[in-house]
Amino acid sequence: MEKVNLTSGFTLLAFSDLHYNHGVLFSTLLVIYALTWTSNLLLISSIKLSAQLHTPMYFFLGNLSVVDISFSTMTVPKLLSCILRGGTSISFHGCFLQMYFFVLLGTTENFLLSVMAFDRYLAVCTPLHYVSLMNDKVMFMMNISCWVASCLHSILHTYILSQLKYCEDRLIHHFFCDVTSLLKLSCSNTSLAELLIYTEGSMVITIPFLLILISYVAIASAIVKIKTSSSRSKAFSSCSSHLMVICLFYGTIIFIYIRPSSDYSSQYDRIVSMAYTIITPMLNPFIYSLRNQDVKQAMKKLTTQCFSPS
To answer: In the beta sheet, which residues pair with residue 12?
Structure first.
């Protein structure tokens, strides 16, 4: 049975059980994928080349763009293949490698959003000490901690699930190898894996989310105490883009993972999964650039330099 586990792969069915226009969906996803790469690379380049964006907030935002590009690249090409073929095979090792990166990137984005909330808390609530508190050393250490902790978390879950035995029916009704889909295909006892997901996995999501809530409660309290409306507006605008991204990210997670099992629907889960693995990575750079004058000016300057005749 273990030999079968290592040599036999899985089949990703994606949306092959649903009726839809393959051409329209394929073209739409291809455009979204191109926009994701273009917008995030433009944002990363603007942050790197513009001196006024060399601050902790934009440093973390650049990391978030790297996560978004990787998230999209991990899922979209395989999904496009599924649409063309009505399903596509993936090897045993390829499936778990995909799951590893899915958990790694999702957890890293979760941690980065909480770190960005803490950064906004320091900027709004302790503006006079912000530069000394969020110095380069602290900024880099927080960023490295996000990636290292996410890597260890992903290794743990990937290892536990890879040790399970899987039945002959290896049809995954999803467009990537996610944790819940693999648990459903296992023929062995999954109690340890489920316990890990509902304890350590839940903590990885809820603790950063609670830190974000605490940070924004403190930020809201500080903004209310600001006397002038212009200063209040400026303080709120520095957080509004981040709040929108948080709502997009955690809204989809809550819909999929924090709900009664009786409400489970693989069809809706696949659709909602597209939101945070495909749609959100495309929207994030637009949210930050359209609502931030510094980013817009940096992007405008970059595009002018790139397309102006020499």
So the answer is: 88, 172
